[in-house]
Amino acid sequence: MTSLFTARPRRASRRAAPLPPLLRLLILTQLAFNIGFFAVLPFLSEHLGQGIGMAGWLVGLVLGLRTFSQQGLFVVGGALADRYGIRPVVLAGCVLRIAGFAWLGFAERTWAVLGAVLLIGFAAALFSPAVESEVARQAVAWEEESGGDRTRVLALFTVAGQAGAFVGPLLGALLLAVDFRTACLAGAGVFVLVLAGHAWLLPQRIPGRARVRVRGGARLLLRNRRFLALCCAYGAYLLAYNQLYLALPAEVERAAGSQAPLAWLFALSSLLVVTAQLPVTRWAGERLAPRRSMVAGLALIAAGFAVVAGVRPAGWTGTAGLLPAAGFVVLLTLGQMLVAPVARAWVPDLAEDGRLGLYTGALSSVSGLIVLAGSSATGLLLDSGLPAAVPWLVLAAVPLAAVGLLPRRPTDSPAGTARA
């Protein structure tokens, strides 16, 4: 297979070959997953604090454990998908997610809430890397057979996920008019439908996919310097993106006196991805080599932080004070559109035969650990009392530093390709 990163930008035909049924199913899966997930989770902290009466530190602990049980264990789910195939792993994840949401709807004691959120997180650690790795593998096969661009498939997968993240909270807000339990049971109902659909439509065996032993995969991964470099660069991007939930709320609170405008800025980001991701990916694919696409995306993200840093000393408030925040969101989202699909499309070129699930999960797990450590440092930076522009300038340096981490010399994967 020709590596994606040895190829030059190309002008694809206007009529791309249609995606195979399995790819379409997996992309719709991402949409359904996010609708069910975001119908519940955005409202969890308020439910725990006001509905159940948990202390603030305990709410933070619960949310942190959910993130760890999901993001931190992606590598486990990916390895299991390599060993047993995606069908049993996806179905098991759906069953656990149904049980977790149903349990959360009735949980009132701390131990019950903890058990429910851990189950919800581990469910995603099973099915998400399985689905993502198979989408990447199928995208490579489609690219080889049709001459299309795998990055566009990954971009479509991103759009589906973002659309679900946009629709889910709207559904959850409507259901909360009844109560939180109803939202949880509705989220479980979405995953019942996903489970039934996949039990019927997901093939028992996928052609071209061979199962491999779990043992030995981690050792090969840790020796793969190019992949680890990509993980670090991707982690830097995610750390910058995570500032939507850390630095941006503080800036909005300062400028507007409340966090009410935050919902509109989040909606702006989601709508940009849904409407512009595919055109941006098509434009970049025709004009930029993939590595340059990532470099451009990281530069845009850095520019978003620089916009706020440049205006912050002026101390603008009100509508004018929100303009730099809006510029930050737009530039960050545009950078995300260039970085995320290409990074995901790069993984098959770096993974050993049969280990694409492990590598896909590891990309999320390693970068998640970087975000966990970096977020703590960012929190200290924002509370350090330094001049107003300094924290934003430091944050701007993070994606710029990530540019130097990207593998420079095009080469094929170290031990074959993702056609496992």
Structural account:
This is Major facilitator superfamily (MFS) profile domain-containing protein. With 420 residues, the protein is an all-alpha fold. The protein has 2 domains: 193 residues, Up-down Bundle (Growth Hormone, Chain: A), CATH 1.20.1250.20; 194 residues, Growth Hormone, Chain: A (Up-down Bundle). Helices cover 75% and strands 0% of the residues. Helix 12 packs across helix 14. The longest helix is centred in the first third of the chain and has 37 residues. The protein is globular. The protein starts with 20 loop residues before the first helix and ends in a 17-residue tail after the last helix.
Write the layout of secondary structure elements.
Blueprint: H1 21-38, H2 44-52, H3 56-71, H4 74-84, H5 86-106, H6 110-146, H7 150-175, H8 180-201, H9 217-222, H10 225-241, H11 247-256, H12 262-287, H13 290-311, H14 318-350, H15 356-382, H16 389-403
Helix pairs in contact: 1-6, 1-7, 1-8, 2-3, 3-6, 4-5, 4-6, 4-15, 5-6, 5-8, 6-7, 6-14, 6-15, 7-8, 7-12, 7-14, 10-14, 10-15, 10-16, 11-14, 12-14, 13-14, 13-16, 14-15
Membrane topology: Multi-pass membrane protein
InterPro entries: MFS, MFS_dom, MFS_trans_sf, MFS_Transporters
Keywords: Cell membrane, Membrane, Transmembrane, Transmembrane helix, Transport
Give keywords.
420 residues, mainly alpha, Growth Hormone, Chain: A, 2 domains, 16 helices, 75% helix, 0% strand, globular, disordered C terminus
CATH architecture of the largest domain: Up-down Bundle
Q: How many strand units?
A: 0
The total tally of domains equals: 2
Strand content: under 5%
Helix count, DSSP H or I runs of 4 or more residues: 16
